Amino acid sequence: MKRKQKITKGVIAVAGSGTRFLPATKSLPKEMLPIVDKPIVHYVVEEMVQAGITDIVFVTRADKKSLEDYFDQNAVLENELRQAGKTKYLEKIEQIAQMANFIYIRQKGPYGNGTPVLNAASIVGNEPFVFAFGDDLVKSKIPFTKQLIQNYERNQAVVMGCQEVLPEEVSLYGILKLKEPSPIMEIERIVEKPRREDAPSLLSNFGRFILVPEICDILSELPLGKGGELWLTDAIEEYIRRGNRVVAQPVEEGRWYTTGDPLHFLHVTLEYALDTEEYGQPLREIMKQMVR
Question: How far apart are CA 231 and CA 226, in angstroms?
Fold first, then answer.
């Protein structure tokens, strides 16, 4: 794979149902649930923008209109805030639509996390791009998308974000087996939800990738996998079998958080709230009172 294109496009998968959050997600997309004062997906977009991404493709579905509206201008609200002199809030609202060039496409095809990638293929074209799940967050000193892009620029290989998990958690995730020795953390294969004793490592892949057009080509011809779904990891493994390199990028100076269920969502909310100047100390006092 010989290419030196600058990565400027990001694809975010936001077509999930959020069933574990029902009834809250009956009318509100899971990705729009707030972490302190911003929806989950806002943090994903911020991370991409801070890494130089200028075009962001949301792969969505019919009941995600509130997400599309969120990243659009709201002239009525802006005018109300302007007339009320609430300039702090006005600036926050105005900045949202200016963060990037937003593109929305409806997900079509089989169920599975490979489908959003395939749907976005015609938009990303012949360029490498960032792919993210809309409910995975990474809180790090250097934006994790930037870490992924820097890895890609060094190694010119597909990059998978990863983080070590506890031994008792390996059966919940796709676990990476690395080639030995490999100073660049080249991946040999991905073991989906292994038993603890069969796990090749503690490195779990999560929803951040640098992908290339060849992955889209493989997805277009790949048979459906486990559960009748189109799996991105199946395409990445086929890409490896064809002699291409895929490398792992651990989170540096930070941590990956999943918001996929209410308990993890509450954990993430606390982590982010405790780190804010406005709410951090008061929240610590509340937590101390609760413990007492």
Answer: 8
* Strand 158-164 to 246-250 pairing: parallel
Domain assignment of residue 213, yes or no: yes
**Quick one: tokens of 158?**
């597909």
Q: Give the model confidence (pLDDT) of 196-255 as tens digits.
A: 888 899 999 999 999 999 999 999 998 888 888 899 999 999 999 999 999 999 999 999
User: Residue 83 in contact with residue 71, Cβ under 8 Å?
Assistant: no
Report the chain's C-alpha Rg in angstroms.
20
- Give, as one character, the DSSP assignment of residue 277: T
Distance CA 178, CA 176 (A): 6
- Strands 9-13, 129-133: parallel, antiparallel or unpaired by DSSP? parallel
State the DSSP code for 197. G
Residue 285 lies in a domain: no
Q: Which domain holds residue 114?
A: 9-260
Residues 202-238 as b or e (16 or more Cβ within 10 Å = b)? bbbbbbbbbbbbbbbebbeebeebeeeebbbbbbbbb
